[in-house]
Design goal:
Catalyzes the hydrolytic deamination of adenine to hypoxanthine. Plays an important role in the purine salvage pathway and in nitrogen catabolism. Belongs to the metallo-dependent hydrolases superfamily. Adenosine and AMP deaminases family. Adenine deaminase type 2 subfamily. The structure is a single chain. The protein is globular. The chain contains 17 helices and 8 strands. With 326 residues, it is of the alpha/beta class. Helix 1 crosses helix 15 and helix 5 packs parallel to helix 7. The protein has an 8-stranded parallel beta sheet, sandwiched between helices. The protein has one domain: Alpha-Beta Barrel (TIM Barrel). The structure holds adenine and zinc ion.
């Protein structure tokens, strides 16, 4: 309880959050009704029962199903506003949000609808509550690089509202090298770069993300620990890792929270952070993630403070804004 209060009071940034993964079953049901979209569940309880996954792909199949209820600008606004309210409740001061435009444009929802709804909620949170944000467009790696290029083209009219690009979805078999050209183009546009790597994929995918995509951060990065030379490199370069403890447990990346690599990451000098990934699907927002991993690994207050500091130093905030939080 004391630890919970300490975590709750810590100012934090969240750097790994898929906005579509914050769709709570209640909102999914409401939007399904409002939009006349059929969903394969009879009740909110049935939805929650379906959230038992044995790997990443199991989850992704349900995640892409769930987002089919999102059709209008208002839907994306309500989705984002609901997440931001939860983040504020956890004393999150800054968020960097991923979105998956290809999950929407392939269903006939326009890029402009998606971005208008999300940014309306982000702007409102900034104006009303001083909650700052960045927006990161993720390419779905199970699709082709040509599809990613077309998505970046569709984003060009909105590029002033987009801070970076990322790479998500099914990792194994879709290495970072597949997206080298589109990441180079995003870099030339001045966008920040991140990629999921080393969640299920091997340490070589983390190296590819650094060497070929030239990413500024690694999302997850767990399996980096299998390669001591890579660990030294990540530590020396101060590469931020956006770690997601409850996600790792729910997707069987770790067998048990007590076996979570976060303590080993900190001991190796890695700039690890704690994030929620897809909180509606994995059972908790930021504070629940700090709590679960701190309880399992018996993290000290100093370690919790270090994790929260890493979340600001690893963020894409301007130096002066970042320093306000440190
Ligand atoms: N899309 C949403 N969450 C993801 C995750 N944890 N890994 C890969 N793709 C995702
Ligand atoms: Zn993720």
């Amino acid at each position: 309880a004391e630890r919970a209060a300490f975590i709750a009071r810590l100012p934090k940034a969240e750097l790994h959050l898929h906005i579509e993964g914050s769709l709570e079953p209640e909102l999914m049901f409401g939007l399904a009704q409002r939009n006349g979209v059929a969903i394969p569940f009879a009740s909110v309880e049935e939805v929650r029962e379906a959230y038992a996954f044995s790997n990443l792909q199991d989850f992704l199949d349900i995640y892409y199903q769930g987002m089919r209820v999102l059709l209008t600008e208002q839907d994306f606004y309500e989705l984002t506003a609901a997440y931001l309210a939860r983040a504020r409740g956890d004393n999150v001061r800054h968020v960097e949000i991923f979105f998956d435009p290809q999950g929407h444009t392939e269903r006939g929802v326009s890029f402009s609808t998606v971005i208008a709804g999300i940014t309306r909620a982000l702007d409102e949170a900034r104006e009303q509550h001083g909650l700052t944000s960045k927006l990161i467009l993720c390419f779905l790696r199970h699709l082709s690089e040509a599809d990613a290029e077309a998505t970046l083209d569709a984003a060009l009219p909105f590029v002033e509202r987009i801070d970076g690009v990322g790479l998500d979805s099914s990792e194994v078999g879709h290495p970072p090298s597949k997206f080298e050209r589109v990441f180079a183009r995003a870099r030339s546009l001045g966008l920040k770069l991140v990629a999921h790597a080393g969640e299920e994929g091997p340490p070589a995918y983390v190296e590819e993300a650094l060497d070929l995509l030239k990413v500024d951060r690694i999302d997850h990065g767990n399996r980096s620990l299998e390669d001591p030379a890579l660990v030294r490199r990540l530590a020396e370069a101060g590469v931020c890792l956006t770690v997601c403890p409850l996600s790792n447990l729910k997707l069987c990346v770790v067998d048990d929270m007590a076996a979570h690599p976060l303590r080993r990451m900190l001991e190796a000098g890695l700039a690890a952070t704690v994030n929620s990934d897809d909180p509606s699907y994995f059972g908790g927002y930021v504070n629940a993630n700090y709590q679960a991993v701190a309880d399992a690994l018996d993290l000290s207050r100093a370690e919790l403070v270090a994790l929260a500091r890493n979340s600001f130093t690893g963020s894409f905030l301007e130096q002066n804004e970042r320093d306000r939080h440190l």
